[in-house]
Design a protein that fits this description.
The protein is mostly helical. The chain contains two helices and no strands. Helix 1 runs antiparallel to helix 2.
């Protein structure tokens, strides 16, 4: 039977990276309004405004996906830690009972 090996550091780093990505996408909201005055002519401004509007919609979808994925990674990390703790406790109790019986 193969052992299941969990890289807790990788899961933790993945969660942190997803949080950073979410935050970066979230801060892009404010940049749009800060740069609108720099867009120039009305044709360019209209084109960039349309792009920015589409990007807002797509960014929100990406942010939801990132947040959902981060939640799954966090749940997996906590689930594995909890299961490992229970297994370790059970193993410790089993060894303790064998020692007591052997006396």
């Amino acid at each position: 039977m193969a052992d299941l090996k969990i890289d807790y550091d990788l899961l933790s780093e993945s969660s942190s990276s997803l949080g950073t990505i979410y935050h970066a996408l979230d801060t892009l909201k404010s940049r749009r309004s800060q740069t609108e005055s720099d867009w120039g002519s009305s044709a360019i401004s209209d084109a960039l405004g349309s792009f920015a509007g589409d990007w807002d919609s797509h960014r929100e979808k990406i942010m939801k996906s990132v947040q959902s994925t981060k939640g799954l990674v966090d749940e997996a990390l906590e689930g594995f830690k909890d299961t490992e703790g229970k297994l370790a406790s059970s193993l410790h109790q089993s060894k303790t009972q064998k020692v007591v019986r052997a006396r």
